Structure formats: structure tokens, C-alpha cells
Automatic annotation (TrEMBL):
Keywords annotated in UniProt: Kinase, Transferase
Listed name of the protein: Sugar kinase
InterPro entries: ATPase_NBD, ROK, ROK_cs
UniProt-listed Pfam families: ROK
Gene Ontology molecular functions: kinase activity
Key word Kinase present: yes
Species: Bifidobacterium longum subsp. suis
Similarity remark: Belongs to the ROK (NagC/XylR) family.
Taxonomy, superkingdom: Bacteria
């Protein structure tokens, strides 16, 4: 790569249902905008199914094989790859490349040594961070949080995750778990099983996409309604005016907003970026989210805008690329 050229990284987003990949070209300067819209370019996007039931060892091996195919594609297309960035589900150790914690969504994923596996197929620098952290880093650097000093990123999809980015750097905490927004206490979640195993009341099992379904079906039993298969059906019924669905959307979003307000009181962010499939539930959801936030947040914290993420599914890939670029810039292997 010539001096001053925009670097391209091979990035991966490893989730519970799919592993996405792409070539991410970042601006030549880490402080510059990319293109007319200020965003990096993501090309060669493709994915493979996670097939979590096959186990963590199998998943690791298929990711490495996927990487080999992508590197061969880059060579064939004349794309110079400067490094490999990984956005991984669970809690990865960025220094050692080991997955130090993971839920039952990915059985056998904990303990996998990812850097060792990549070292067998490439000499390129490889760097891994958490998938939700990568999402937040992408939005903070090139998306809805760009130009802000303290960014709180909340992802509301199948589950709920979060990330804290301070002056462009991802804050991970003492054990790598900072930003686990789905595991903030909420009275609405009491009695609903969280992915972490507790029934004591976390927000994820009632405010994620899966949580919307479970909350609706629990109330549906009492009202002899028709159960739903997923959260999108709850949103559709709410949009059609069904009272039960409207109540579920409002209660769930308000409870999540209250939790975000509490997070805001602790972190004092400049902006709160909310992304994921559930944010497409419409104005009813957003209005309830903001109402809950305003009820819970301190007066000075209420000035932090709640905005929708801009990068969509590319955010973790972009964040992974940003992370490996900084890793290389620090002179790390």
C-alpha cells in the first residue's frame, strides 16, 4: 500500500445466526471523512450461517476457511488487505485472541483461540473486539455519533447490547463487559428468562425483538389472543391499532428508555445512538422510548439526543476495521 493511500481491511461480524464479512476501505487519515457522505466504503459483502449447534471449534474453523476465501478474492481483484478485523459475539480478549465468555447461544465458543487459528493461514495483523463494541465504534467514528466526545451506543435486535466510546476509544471495563445494556435491571423483566440465566428482571428479555414476542405472548395468554412468532409481528399488529400490541410496544420501549436514562446518568454521554431491528417499530416505539428516557434521566443528561444509527448492518464491519487500524498504528503485530 502506497503512502497516503486509503487502507482496506478484511472485516468479520460473528453473530449467533450468521457471520458477515466485507472489505472495508477507510479514509487515508484516521481523522478524515471518507467520501461525500463521510463513510468508509464496504465492498465484497457476503456471509455464511453460524450454525451454532455444530459447536465453537467448528465455527472457528469455518470462519478461518471463510477468511481464506475472502483473501483469495482480494488477491484476484487486486485489493491490498492491510489487516483483519473481527467483531465477535461473546467477550473476546483483544490481547490474546481468546473468547473468555459466551452464552449458550454459541455453545463451545468460550475458550476458542481465534488468533492462533488465523496465524496458521495469514501473516496479516489480526485484531478482535466484541461485536456490539464494534457496532458502537463504527457509529461513533463514522456514523450517528461522529464528532462527539462520549457516545453511548445501544443495539436493540434479537438481544440488547451496548458500547461506550470515549474520544474515539472503546471503553471495555475491567473484565471486558462494559456496555452490556441488556442486563440492566428492569421491573418489567422480572420473571422472564434472560440470556444470562437470571429471572430476576433484566431489560433484554422484554425489550429485545425476542423480548417483544415473549412479552406479547405472555399477555396474550391472559387475554386469549393469537400468539406471535417474532417481534416484527407485534410491531405490525401495533401499527394496525391492536390494543394489546400497542400496550406491549409502549410498555417495552418505555422500560428500555428508563434503563437508558439510568445509563445516561452514570455515563453522561454527548449522544445516545440506538440501532437494530427493533428501532424500525415506528413512532409509537420511539415516542415511548424517549418518554421513558426523559422520566429517568437527570435534567442535564436529558439534553443528550437519542438518535437512530446510520450505518445499519455495516457498522460492526466498519468498527472492526477501525479497531485493527488503530492496533496496527500502535505497532502491534
Amino acid at each position: 500500500m502506497s503512502a497516503g493511500a486509503a487502507p482496506t481491511y478484511l472485516a468479520f461480524d460473528i453473530g449467533g445466526t450468521k457471520v458477515a464479512s466485507g472489505f472495508v476501505t477507510l479514509p487515508a487519515s484516521a481523522n478524515a471523512n471518507a467520501g461525500a457522505d463521510g463513510r468508509p466504503e464496504v465492498t465484497a459483502r457476503c456471509e455464511i450461517p453460524t450454525e451454532a449447534a455444530r459447536g465453537g471449534e467448528d465455527l472457528k474453523n469455518r470462519i478461518v476457511a471463510f477468511a481464506v476465501r475472502q483473501l483469495e478474492r482480494a488477491e484476484a481483484e487486486g485489493v491490498a488487505i492491510a489487516g483483519v478485523g473481527l467483531a465477535a459475539a461473546g467477550v473476546p480478549d483483544s490481547e490474546t485472541g481468546e473468547i473468555v465468555s459466551a452464552t449458550d447461544i454459541l455453545p463451545g465458543w468460550r475458550g476458542q483461540r481465534i488468533y492462533d487459528a488465523f496465524a496458521a493461514v495469514t501473516d496479516l495483523p489480526v485484531h478482535m473486539i466484541g461485536d456490539v463494541g464494534a457496532h458502537g465504534l463504527g457509529e461513533a467514528t463514522y456514523g450517528a455519533g461522529r464528532g462527539r466526545g462520549v457516545v453511548l451506543s445501544i443495539g436493540v435486535g434479537t438481544g440488547i447490547g451496548g458500547a461506550i466510546v470515549v474520544d474515539g476509544a472503546l471503553f471495555t471495563g475491567a473484565h471486558g463487559v462494559a456496555g452490556h445494556a441488556g442486563h440492566v435491571p428492569s421491573a418489567l423483566g422480572r420473571g422472564f428468562l434472560c440470556s444470562c440465566g437470571t429471572l430476576e428482571g433484566h431489560i433484554e428479555p422484554v425489550a429485545s425483538g425476542t423480548g417483544l414476542k415473549d412479552l406479547y405472548n405472555a399477555r396474550c395468554d391472559a387475554e386469549e389472543g393469537e400468539p406471535v412468532a417474532d417481534g416484527s409481528q407485534v410491531a405490525a399488529r401495533a401499527a394496525a391499532g391492536e390494543p394489546l400490541a400497542v400496550g406491549v410496544i409502549e410498555d417495552s420501549a418505555r422500560a428500555l428508555g428508563e434503563c437508558i436514562g439510568g445509563m445516561g446518568n452514570l455515563i453522561d454521554p454527548d449522544v445516545i445512538v440506538v440501532s437494530g431491528s427493533v428501532v424500525k417499530a415506528g413512532p409509537l416505539w420511539w415516542n415511548a422510548l424517549r418518554a421513558g428516557f426523559e422520566d429517568s434521566a437527570l435534567q442535564l443528561v436529558r439534553s443528550a439526543p437519542l438518535v437512530e444509527g446510520e450505518l445499519g448492518g455495516a457498522a460492526p464491519l466498519i468498527g472492526a476495521a477501525v479497531a485493527v487500524r488503530r492496533h496496527v498504528a500502535q505497532g502491534r503485530p
